[in-house]
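Figure 3 (text version): structure tokens given as input.
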């Protein structure tokens, strides 16, 4: 009899937990840390290189690139943030967070793979361009809003500083076969580095020499310069529950004041090499000539904004959050209002996912998404004990949608919450 009562009571408890409301996901006080790292390309997948003998069919690659019209692209991004949130049901929403954001992308012209796959004629120059950029932002954001009648509105002004902005300028490599049977190349790499402070030789020397007193004074000057370089954007988020199972949301981020860079430095890399095909086969060729030059920081005024974003989405959480279907689509404008219109680009974000929860404690999600021009096929697992929640995820990634399924890159993230 006692066993029957115990089993019956356990079933009642589990049933109640399974069909309980979503209170375990709705903390009034929440402290959060999140970090993610993405690295990808649009050419080589894990199956191409994770083998005992690596065989790369450059002719096939050249054929694929001729069909797509795209060159080789690699990208790396990272995002780290920490903050807190006070979210009172039918009341005040208040919080703050700060973090770092990094994005880098480099595209090499498809002519390189035409050369590797098809070869070239005598005295025919193969000119291959390289085009890329990198951004590093630091930000501090405040959140203030209100819950009322199923609607949550949160306004989030953010002060941010562009720590660095790097671009390529007329970078290329030229391959050629000469009339006397030699193989040669000429490499020209030019990079412009914009920073809020002068990242000159003296600073590098102080770091290498360990001149800590000088570095402390330099650090104070850098903080002052970062404050003077700060920009402002404003984000507005809306979340409305249509009923107990369906909610819709929208988010918009608009640049208001750009971050200002006060210095520009340039780095120039040159390399030349000439040898014969028998020399390559016999390993008797000479090392390439390689030189690198840089210029001191030039005082300028260069402004840059974080991306402008508009996003709408929804969440269908059937059976009291046992199963969630969620998604959103958005449009983004990178480097909005840039002086150089070539730096501006428009791209689309999207996310579609399914989350399965077990007693509001364990959850597993699968999703497909494109965020900041990187496609991901993601799996996420989490445990939620109310006082603490941890979610971790991994994804295959690529700047090409089809290649994102073949492991041409990887993404990993962690999301930690502590609160009541």
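Below: residues designed for each position.
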């Amino acid at each position: 009899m006692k066993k029957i009562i115990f089993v019956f009571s356990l079933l009642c408890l589990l049933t109640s937990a399974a069909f309980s409301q979503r209170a375990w996901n709705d903390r009034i006080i929440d402290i959060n840390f999140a970090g993610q790292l993405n690295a990808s390309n649009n050419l080589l997948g894990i199956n191409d290189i994770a083998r005992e003998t690596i065989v790369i069919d450059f002719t096939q690659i050249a054929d694929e690139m001729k069909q797509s019209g795209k060159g080789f692209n690699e990208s790396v991004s990272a995002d780290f943030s920490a903050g807190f949130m006070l979210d009172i049901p039918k009341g005040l929403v208040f919080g703050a967070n700060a973090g770092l954001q990094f994005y880098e992308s480099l595209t090499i012209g498809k002519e390189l793979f035409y050369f590797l796959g098809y070869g070239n004629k005598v005295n025919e120059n193969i000119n291959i361009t390289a085009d890329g950029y990198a951004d590093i932002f630091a930000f501090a954001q405040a959140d203030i809003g209100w819950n009322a009648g199923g609607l949550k509105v949160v306004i989030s002004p953010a002060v941010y500083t562009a720590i660095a902005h790097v671009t390529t300028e007329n970078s290329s490599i030229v391959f050629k076969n000469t009339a006397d049977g030699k193989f040669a190349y000429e490499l020209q790499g030019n990079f412009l580095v914009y920073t809020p402070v002068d990242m000159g030789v003296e600073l590098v020397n102080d770091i290498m020499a360990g001149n800590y007193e000088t570095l402390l004074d330099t650090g104070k000057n850098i903080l002052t310069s970062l404050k003077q370089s700060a920009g402002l954007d404003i984000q507005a988020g809306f979340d409305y529950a249509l009923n107990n199972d369906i909610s819709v949301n929208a988010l918009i981020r608009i640049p208001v004041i750009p971050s200002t860079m006060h210095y520009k430095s340039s780095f120039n890399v040159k390399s030349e090499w000439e040898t014969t095909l028998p020399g390559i086969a016999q390993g008797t060729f000479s090392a390439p000539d390689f030189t690198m030059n840089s210029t001191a920081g030039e005082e300028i005024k260069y402004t840059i904004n974080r991306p402008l974003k508009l996003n709408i989405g929804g969440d269908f959480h059937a059976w009291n959050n046992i199963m969630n279907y969620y998604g959103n689509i958005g449009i983004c404008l990178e480097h909005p209002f840039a002086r150089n219109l070539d730096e501006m680009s428009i791209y689309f974000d999207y996310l579609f996912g399914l989350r399965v929860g077990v007693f509001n404690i364990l959850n597993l999600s699968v999703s497909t998404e494109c965020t900041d021009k990187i496609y991901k096929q993601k799996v996420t697992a989490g445990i939620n004990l109310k006082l603490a929640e941890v979610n971790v995820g991994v994804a295959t990634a690529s700047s090409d949608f089809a290649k994102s399924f073949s492991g041409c890159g990887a993404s990993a993230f962690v999301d930690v919450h502590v609160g009541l």
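The helical segments are 2-18, 46-49, 58-68, 111-118, 201-209, 212-228, 277-282, 318-321.
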